Amino acid sequence: MRIMSPAFPNGHRIPSLFTCDGDDINPELRFDGVPKEAKSLALVVDDPDSPSGNWLHWSVWNIDPSLRIIEEDSVPDKALEGETDFSEVGYGGPCPGYGEHEYRFTIFALDSFLDVHEGAPRHVLEAAMQPHILASAALTGRYQRIKKEARAAKVKVKVQAKSTAKAKAKTKVKVKAKQR
What is the pLDDT of residues 92-140, one digit of tens each? Predict the structure, then answer.
């Protein structure tokens, strides 16, 4: 089994369009080599580099096993989505707090449909999937944000420069006042 995306090659940078810095939409995903006996597919997108644990960005299950493409910014017909670690249902793109993180897009071929309700948390989905996995494949991508701290530091330097200029101007006014 294999999963890939025309948006980025395996192991390379995920374009910001698919992250919290862009439109926060899912990239197009393609897969092949699905076992003939598969009754459904499930997709899990996570960030194992997250300091708070393996952060879930998207889960989708009961995908038709004959499907070979999940289009950009879409959910396959009749598939269900789970709750992410953002406490929302649906895709939540890469949004690392610091540094570069690796993101995994893992597709699972299952020997049954899953009796898991829409909006289910990850642990419920994984428990239901575990005894039914026939095969899996992963695509990895990397992403690093422009640090908010760096932007904040630039603003702080500008504010300090203005404050220093104002302080110098006040000092000149005081010196002139004392000379009179």
Answer: 999 998 899 999 999 999 999 999 999 999 999 999 999 999 999 999 9
Greatest distance between any 2 Cα atoms in the chain? 96
Residue 60 belongs to domain with CATH number: 3.90.280.10
Which residue, among 126, 122, 88, 86, has the nearest Cα to 108 in the 3D structure? 126
Q: Which domain, by its residues, includes 151? A: 147-180
pLDDT in tens, 133-151: 999 999 999 999 975 543 3
Give me the number of domains the chain comprises: 2
Q: For 26, which DSSP code?
A: P
Residue matched to tokens 């992403």? 143
Contacts of 147 (CB under 8 A, 6+ apart): 98
Helices (H), ranges, 29-180 = 122-129, 148-179
161 and 172 housed in the same domain: yes
Provide the percentage of residues in the chain whose pLDDT is more than 70.
81
Rounded Cα distance, 2 and 30, in Å: 8
